[in-house]
Design a protein that fits this description.
Helix Hairpins, Heat Shock Protein 90, 5-stranded mixed β-sheet, 501 residues, 14 strands, 17% strand, Beta-Lactamase, alpha+beta
Length: 501
C-alpha cells in the first residue's frame, strides 16, 4: 500500500469571511403587550357598544309611541262613515284632542275616499308606497316626510260597507284610507334620555375599569419581578435549582427550563473542572521528566551523555506534545456537537482509506502490516468529517501501539447482515484486553495494567465521545482471526446508524 506524505487536512479560516450583523430586535414589554391587547379591543368595542345602545334605545322609544299612534289611527278610522253615498267624519271631542298638536310634536292626518279623493286632513301627506297593501282594519307603519319633516305614519284601510252580509257579498268593497303622522321629537328625546342614562355612567366606570386593569396587570406580573430579584441576588457560583413552588402555574415551565439549563451548565462546569484537574495532574509527569533531563544534561561533560540526555528530552517533549494535542482534541469533542458543526453526508470508505494512508509510514517504521478492507459499494453516513477522521486515527494509533513487530492491523468498513447499520472495525493481533478491563478502557487516562506501552490514556476516550455525538456505539472484542491464546488481539467496532431517507 502506498503512503501519502505531508498531507494536511486542516485549512486556515479565510480572512475575507465576515459575519453580517443581525438586525437588532426591539425589546417589547410584557406589561405593555398585555395592556395593548386588553385596551385596544376595549376602546374599539366601546364606540360599537354606544352605537348598538343607540339603536336599541330608538327601538325601545318607538314601541310606546307606535302603540299610541296605532290607537289614534284606529279611533280615527272608527269615525269614518258613509251615509247615503256620502262619506263624513264626525269627530268626537276625544278624537279632536288626540289630533291636537302639542309643543313637542306635530300630528298630521289624512282621510281619502275610495277614489282617492281627500275627505279630511292634510292634502300634502304622502300616499302609501305601491308595494304596501295592508289588510283591511290592520295598522301598518312607515317612515316618511311631510313638509320636509321626518314623520312616523300609521296607515289603516277602512271598509265603508256597514252590513257584514253586504261585506261578504259579491259587491266590490268601498275602501277609505286613513293616515296619521307624527313628528319624531318625543321619540328622539326619549332615545337620548336612554342613551344618557346608559352612556354617562360609562365615562365614570371606564376610568375605574382601566385603573383596576392596570392594578391587576401589575399584581399579576409581580411574580416575574420577584423571580428576577431572586435570580439577581444569587451568588455567581450558585447553580442550585430555582424553587418553583413560589411562582404561578403559568411560569412553572419557564422555571423548569431555567433549572434544566442550570443543571446542564453545572455539568459542563464540572466537566471543565475535571478536565483541568486531570490535565494538570497528567502534565506533571512529562514536565518533571523534561526538567530532570535538562538538569542532567547541564551536568554532563561527556558528549555521548549529553547526546543521550538530549534524545531523552526530545522523546519526553514528543510525549508531552502528544498529550496536549489529545487533551485539546478531547475538549473539542466534548464541547462541539451537531449545533456547532452541522452533519453532512460522509463517504466512510474514502475517509477511512485516507486515514490509513496517513499511518502507512508509521506502520513501516514499526514493521507492522497495516491493511484496509472496503466493500464494493460506498457506504455513506451523516457526520462531521473532521471529528470522524480523529476517531479513525485514534483507533489506528491505539492498534499500532499495542501490536508487536511483524504483527498486523486491519481497518475494515462494511454493513451488517441486516443492512441496518454501517460498521467500522479496527483489528490487531496484540495482547488483547481482558474482559474485566473492557468497561474501563474508554475512561480518560485509564491504562490497562501490566503493559509498558507509552500513551496518555486519552485516545479511546476521544473515540467514545465522537461516537456518542454520531449516535454510534463502540464495542471491543477478541480478534476472531487470532488463534494464539496468549495474544488474542482486539477488535474495536463502531456501529453507525444508517442515514434516514
Amino acid at each position: 500500500m502506498s503512503s501519502m506524505h505531508n498531507a494536511s487536512d486542516a485549512s486556515a479560516p479565510s480572512d475575507e469571511t465576515f459575519t453580517q450583523p443581525s438586525e437588532e430586535k426591539i425589546q417589547r414589554s410584557l406589561f405593555g403587550e398585555l395592556l395593548d391587547w386588553l385596551l385596544i379591543p376595549l376602546l374599539l368595542l366601546w364606540p360599537l357598544s354606544i352605537a348598538f345602545t343607540y339603536v336599541v334605545a330608538k327601538s325601545i322609544a318607538n314601541q310606546p309611541f307606535d302603540r299610541a299612534l296605532e290607537n289614534t289611527a284606529t279611533v280615527l278610522a272608527q269615525q269614518v262613515r258613509e251615509i247615503d253615498g256620502k262619506i263624513s267624519v264626525p269627530l268626537a271631542s276625544s278624537a279632536r284632542d288626540i289630533l291636537h298638536a302639542d309643543d313637542t310634536d306635530t300630528v298630521y292626518f289624512q282621510i281619502l275616499g275610495p277614489r282617492g279623493e281627500l275627505i279630511a286632513g292634510d292634502r300634502d301627506m304622502p300616499a302609501p308606497h305601491a308595494e304596501e297593501n295592508p289588510r283591511i282594519g290592520v295598522v301598518q307603519f312607515r317612515d316618511d316626510a311631510v313638509h320636509g319633516t321626518e314623520v312616523r305614519i300609521a296607515t289603516i284601510r277602512v271598509d265603508l260597507r256597514k252590513s257584514r252580509a253586504l261585506a261578504m257579498g259579491a259587491a266590490e268593497p268601498r275602501i277609505a284610507l286613513v293616515q296619521i303622522g307624527e313628528t319624531l321629537g318625543k321619540r328622539g328625546h326619549l332615545a337620548n334620555e336612554i342613551i344618557k342614562g346608559v352612556v354617562l355612567p360609562q365615562f365614570i366606570i371606564l376610568p375605574i375599569a382601566l385603573a383596576l386593569l392596570w392594578l391587576a396587570l401589575s399584581r399579576g406580573l409581580s411574580p416575574l419581578a420577584e423571580l428576577q430579584s431572586r435570580i439577581r441576588a444569587r451568588r455567581p457560583d450558585d447553580l442550585s435549582p430555582i424553587e418553583a413552588g413560589q411562582v404561578p402555574e403559568e411560569i412553572s415551565p419557564l422555571v423548569a427550563s431555567l433549572n434544566d439549563l442550570l443543571e446542564r451548565l453545572s455539568q459542563s462546569i464540572e466537566v471543565q473542572k475535571r478536565f483541568i484537574a486531570d490535565a494538570a495532574h497528567q502534565m506533571k509527569t512529562p514536565l518533571a521528566g523534561l526538567r530532570t533531563q535538562s538538569e542532567l544534561a547541564l551536568r554532563q561533560t561527556s558528549q555521548e551523555e549529553i547526546q543521550r540526555s538530549l534524545m531523552q528530552l526530545a522523546k519526553s517533549s514528543e510525549s508531552a506534545t502528544r498529550m496536549v494535542n489529545q487533551l485539546l482534541a478531547l475538549a473539542r469533542a466534548e464541547h462541539q456537537g451537531p449545533a456547532a458543526n452541522p452533519f453532512a453526508p460522509v463517504n466512510l470508505n474514502d475517509l477511512a482509506r485516507h486515514v490509513v494512508q496517513d499511518w502507512v509510514q508509521t506502520s513501516f517504521t514499526r514493521n507492522i502490516d497495516l491493511g484496509f478492507e472496503e466493500p464494493e459499494q460506498p457506504l455513506t453516513i451523516l457526520g462531521n468529517p473532521v471529528t470522524l477522521r480523529e476517531l479513525v486515527s485514534n483507533l489506528v494509533d491505539n492498534a499500532l501501539r499495542y501490536t508487536p513487530a511483524k504483527g498486523f492491523v486491519t481497518v475494515r468498513v462494511r454493513s451488517d447482515a441486516d443492512q441496518q447499520h454501517i460498521l467500522l472495525e479496527v483489528e490487531d493481533n496484540g495482547p488483547g484486553i481482558p474482559p474485566s478491563e473492557r468497561a474501563h478502557v474508554f475512561d480518560r487516562f485509564y491504562r490497562v495494567l501490566g503493559n509498558d506501552v507509552e500513551g496518555s490514556g486519552l485516545g479511546l476516550a476521544i473515540v467514545r465521545e465522537i461516537a456518542q455525538q454520531h449516535d454510534a456505539e463502540v464495542d471491543v472484542f477478541n480478534n476472531p482471526h487470532c488463534s494464539d491464546p496468549k495474544a488474542p488481539g482486539c477488535l474495536f467496532r463502531v456501529t453507525f446508524p444508517l442515514p434516514k431517507p
